[in-house]
Amino acid sequence: QLQLQQWGAGLLKPSETLSLTCAVYGGSFSAYYWSWIRQPPGMGLEWIGEINHSGNANYKPSLKSRVSISVDTSKNQFSLHLSSVTAADTAVYYCASDYGDYAGEYWYFDIWGRGTLVTVSS
Amino acid sequence: DIQMTQSPSSLSASVGDRITITCRASQSISSCLNWYQQKPGKAPKLLIYAASSLQSGVPSRFSGSGSGTDFTLTISSLQPEDFATYYCQQSYSTVRTFGQGTKLEIK
Q1: Which of A28, A30, B7, B61 would bridge A53 by S-S if both were Cys, CB 3.0 to 4.6 A apart?
Q2: Which residue, among A10, A28, A1, has the nearest Cα to A92 in the 3D structure?
Q3: How far is CA A64 from the centre of its chain?
Q4: A116-120 and A11-12: which strand pairing?
């Protein structure tokens, strides 16, 4: 049974870099894309980006200039870095597995981490 | 980005009611549409994938339909545990996007 455990700093000052890591347990690290999704307080879900075990990454265009997602296959971990944060980046950040069916046609977020609240405040 | 628009944004219903939530994509996404349920303070939970496939362990009162640009999530007989927020999400594009959510409340 695949499980995701995430951690990282929960309080940042404006202009700092947000860093979160997600560890994958109990599943095949190479079978998925590994995603980051965030949710500002009281608002909806926003996909940030994702990466596969080979390091192929996709990002939300409006965040692309500030976002970097990396993967460490030796530890079955992937990480999010978001630079130059502002109050608008305050959100609960989730890691999730983006699973594709056998044909790679249908993809869906089937397993989620518990979420990390990141607050940006001076 | 492909824009996903849900309606209604909120919905009041009673236990036992049948309800439908609609999701519209800004361009055709084939059947690459997923539905999630989120309860306060919890991570979203996958309900339906590929527009109409029920995720393992999800009650059969949940169903999805549609293709192209128009999709629906139906709950056939609301149970107390179904009151939550529901999101659609497209996986047609490598830039994934979610709908804004539909909050289902008890009448």
Answers
A1: A30
A2: A10
A3: 13
A4: parallel
